[in-house]
Design brief:
single chain, alpha/beta, Trna Endonuclease, Chain: A, domain 1, 5-stranded mixed sheet, 6 helices, 5 strands
Length: 172
Amino acid sequence: MKWIDATTLKNWASSRDCQENLPFVIQRLVRATSTDISNIAFPSGNSIIYSGWDGILEVIKGNEYIPEGLSVWEIGTNENIKKKANDDYQKRKENTLGIDAKETTFIFVTPRIWPTKDSWAKEKKAEYFWKDVRVYDARILEEWIEQAPVVGAWLAQYLKICPVGVISLEDW
């Protein structure tokens, strides 16, 4: 059963709750779709106010959504997606916080729909600063959540949009 779609994520994007909890959703998606995690950190809740990467992930074997090796993540809920992506990209390019960019994938995540995300990522990849550059918008997140139904059910319950009587596996 699919309760979370791109529109749901887009509507959630303007809330402070999304800013605080989207990193936790990403962490849950990673844990639900990877078994080879060597390092994971996606600060959420009140921890989002501190400087540093929004997410750091290292896996031995990647998959469709998780690049093999080290990846660093920036998450933005702003309406002006391109400006936020450019600002985060430039800030991290100027200071990688000790990360070897040539060996690391940079991922920008937005819960909004970004129709030009592929051209932005292609433009940044052409700089050859990072090993790879990816963008996950609401449509990609919808697909990823579909691959992790437990996360989708949990998020639907959290957002209070699942049908009456449905309970998550955690609550059961």
